[in-house]
Amino acid sequence: MAVRSRNFYLVPYLLWIALFVIAPIVLIVYYSFFDVEGNFTFDNYAKFFTPVYLRMTLNSFWYALLITFFSLLVAYPTAYLLTKTKHKQLWLLLIILPSWINLLLKTYAFIGLFGTYGFTNAVLDTLGFGRHQILFTDFSFVFVSVYIFIPFMVLPIFNALEEMNPTLIYAARDLGASGWTTFRRVVFPLTISGVTSGCQAVFIPALSLFMITRLIAGNRVITLGTAIEQHFLVTQDWGMGATIAVFLIIAMAVTMLFTGNREVRTKR
Amino acid sequence: MTSKGNRFANLYLIAVFAVLYAPIVYLMVYSFNSGGTMHGFDGFTLEWYEEVFADTRLLIIVLNTFVIALLSSAISTILGVIGALAIRQVRRRQPRNTLLSLNNVLIVSPDVIIGASFLILFTMIGIRLGFTSVLLSHIAFSVPIVVLMVLPKLQEMSSTLIDAARDLGASSWDVLTKVVLPYIKPGIFAGFFMALTYSLDDFAVTFFVTGNGFSTLSVEIYSRARQGVSLSINALSTLLFLFTVLLVIGYYFINNRNPRTTLRSTDGEAAKR
After folding, report:
1. Residue A1 C-alpha, separation from nearest chain B C-alpha, in angstroms
2. CATH topology of domain B56-215
3. Choosing a second label site near A149 at 20 to 30 A (CA), which of B13, B107, B177, B216?
4. Could you tell me if residue A137 is inside a domain?
5. Which of A10, A31, A212 is the best mutation test for B, with the most CBs of B within 10 A?
6. Which family is annotated (chain B) (predicted)?
């Protein structure tokens, strides 16, 4: 009885959930059934399955996979080596620190770094490779995205490595495993939870990037996120935007099921 | 093997750090460039900083950003603490897990979806896009973060502490303000700080719900960056970077001091009894 009487905490919290969690999702699904004039229709879904949108979706998935893959490729060794350093918490903090700097500013910096007369081209020029168009290419898009996401990949892997019992490594070495075998058969399998939560933290946002596609990729890359932004804010076709959002939500749910939806770690 | 491996390891880490900090350093260095572009350093100048401080429109936007950040994190901290207390009250497993999943929806949702759905929501309810809509959405997406920061603290608190307080005649209000809240204070601070950084950092959600008249820093930088390079953005980013570093130091200071002090004080109180 006492417990029941104290449940008044639930009222504001449930109100928040109803208004900002459930209502928005319901509204997205609801809007996906309306066209620009406000008539009920399934056209948006039919349109989504035309080659134009399917190719865009596939493209978006491909870029997200690339970004996740390269983030993992850079982040795993980084996290691994970080655990070996002295003052590892300080180094970890220094890895995380850039992620607290406004995303827009870092992206803006790359406009300067990758520009025709920017630092990267100056280096290439002095090395004798000549100047290249770096900005507004697939390379710059993937590079900047990986740059943005690396801290989110390092953090869960670092935590997983830290939770691992070091005696297991000694045992493997004692039993004659080489360094590589120890890594492949002991360390990596034991930290797979960190890897999956890192991939989850990168893959879903990578699918929905839209600011970087505009500033760095110069509208060459259209991700699901860019398409949603385009439909909501430029062409004002909310119905189609909502339809793409529904598919993005489905993709998100599938990814989370696929990666096992362990404990959710914070985005940054 | 070890010395060679070590050297390689150090090189790798140095390379990663170099790449991570290169853009930030680059921005800061060119904020002092009198040339007006982000290439070819012509000479040292503070003119871009003067330009930032002379730009009233920009200063109002900075002020807006901070007002939104402070208000939204304060309100979402209160809501988040209430939420964490609510989740703790729910004893049955099934509804509790449902609540937790619903709580996490906004954390795992891509910003674009949050932005688009809030845009629909606000137009449906009839809230005009601007200060109110931005504030409400920042509160909305910060609440689950605060809940996640506070809940572990609540769960590690032994329920015997509350029972003891009740036995000694404390009212529910006393239990809350004198036992529970002091105990979870580090979690509350961490939640507030996280909400603050989320709000200051947010671009995508704000971009959707901001409307015409109102702007935050991220949105403003985006629209300026689309027009090309302007070194006053560099000057602004240098100032923001220093501010972020200060915030982080402050956060670590609070985080490293609080657990110890609360532990000591609860120990002391336990010893007294």
Report:
1. 12
2. MetI-like fold (1.10.3720)
3. B216
4. yes
5. A10
6. Belongs to the binding-protein-dependent transport system permease family. CysTW subfamily.
Question: CA–CA separation, A247 vs A238, rounded Å?
Answer: 14
ipTM value, please give it: 0.85
The C-alpha of A168 sits at a distance from chain B's nearest C-alpha, in angstroms, of: 20
Residue in B27, B114, B222 closest to A211 by CB: B222
Q: Is residue A258 part of a domain?
A: yes
pTM comes to 0.85
Of B86, B114, B226, the CB nearest to A9: B86
Task: Look at B225 and A111 and tell me if their CB atoms are within 8 Å.
Answer: yes
Q: What is the per-residue pLDDT across B176-199, written as a single tens digit (0 to 9) for each?
A: 888 899 999 989 998 998 898 889
Domain total of chain A: 1
Which residues are CB-contacts of B249 (< 8 A; sequence separation ≥ 6)? none
Between positions 115 and 154 of B, the ones with CB within 8 A of A are 115-121, 124, 140-141, 143, 145, 148
Tell me the nearest-neighbour CA distance from B23 into chain A, angstroms. Answer: 5
> Are A141 and A258 a contacting pair, CB within 8 Å?
no
Alpha helices (H) in B31-55, listed in sequence order: 47-54
Indicate the DSSP class of residue B6: H
Residues present in chain A in total: 268
